[in-house]
Amino acid sequence: MAKTVREDIGEFYQHYPRVAVVVTAQAGGRKNAMAAAWHMSISFSPPLYGVSISPKRFTYQLIVDSKEFGVNFLPFEAAELIASVGGSHGQKIDKFERFNIAWDKSLRTAVPILRAAYAAYECRLVDDRVYGDHRLLVGEIEAVHWLKDAFAAEEVLDLAKVNPVLYLGYDLYLTASKDSVRSLDREVYGKR
Ligand SMILES: Cc1cc2nc3c(=O)[nH]c(=O)nc-3n(C[C@H](O)[C@H](O)[C@H](O)COP(=O)(O)O)c2cc1C
Fold first, then answer.
1. pLDDT for 167
2. Which residues surround ligand 1 with Cβ inside 6 Å?
3. In angstroms, what is the span from residue 183 Cα to ligand 1's centroid?
4. pLDDT tens digit string along 41-78?
5. Which pLDDT score, from 0 to 100, does residue 85 have?
């Protein structure tokens, strides 16, 4: 298969699939949730996590107002929830009510933690920077919520217990199964 090159970039999706998460926020008595595929860990010490969010999102406004956000990691059975909060606007509706989303109180912030999440980060906003048509919001993680039983040694997700939601772009979702895992020892491979 020969590669094609383009210099007129436009929108680019060649780096997908990505893990899809739900970003939660609250401010002024309103809580909200949105889907996000553009997110990343940035630092262990201090523990920093980044989410790239368009300023058009209602969630962005709530994060700026409250200076906090939650990042929720869901099992594949909850993929519909991601499509629901990613296809609706919190300015117009209460998504928690409309989609019957169960949530729990957080520990260090006031962001809602989704009950269906196998893991979630509570973040305190430490930076908000413009990058083109999105804003990179960086949060310091103040609490990690996780189903310890869903993780094996070294805090590696046990795919026999939980399958994460991966997002292929447009409206396509998939997951990763245990039988696709390969263990490649970096010490061995780094010396070949
Ligand atoms: C799977 C998926 C991933 C998305 N990823 C992002 C993202 O990383 N950043 C972003 O700004 N919007 C993203 N969106 C779009 C928002 O989730 C969507 O615009 C949502 O309606 C915003 O809700 P809000 O206005 O209530 O905040 C994504 C949507 C989907 C379905």
1. 98
2. 20, 32, 34-38, 52-54, 57-59, 82-83, 86, 88-90, 167
3. 33
4. 999 999 999 999 999 999 999 999 999 999 999 999 99
5. 98
Atom 13 in ligand 1: residue holding the nearest Cα = 36
Instruction: For strands 166-169 and 134-146, give the pairing.
Output: unpaired
Q: What's the Cα-to-Cα distance from 16 to each of 3, 50, 97, 110, rounded to whole Å? A: 17, 18, 31, 32
- Position 110 scores a pLDDT of 98
- 112 neighbors 70 (Cβ within 8 angstroms): yes
* 39: DSSP letter: E
CB atoms within 10 A of CB 116: 15
* DSSP state letter for 67: S
192 Cα to the center of ligand 1, angstroms: 43
DSSP assignment letter at 75: B
Q: What is the DSSP letter of 150?
A: G
Please work out, in degrees rounded to the nearest 5, the angle formed at the alpha carbon of residue 16 by the alpha carbons of 86 and 56: 35
pLDDT, residue 147, reads: 98
In the sheet with 166-169, reading across from the earlier edge strand, the strands are 18-19, 166-169, 172-174
At 135 the pLDDT is: 98
Closest CA to 75 of 36, 40, 118: 118
Residues of the chain falling short of pLDDT 50: none
Q: What is the pLDDT of residue 185?
A: 97
CA of 68 to the centre of ligand 1 (A): 17
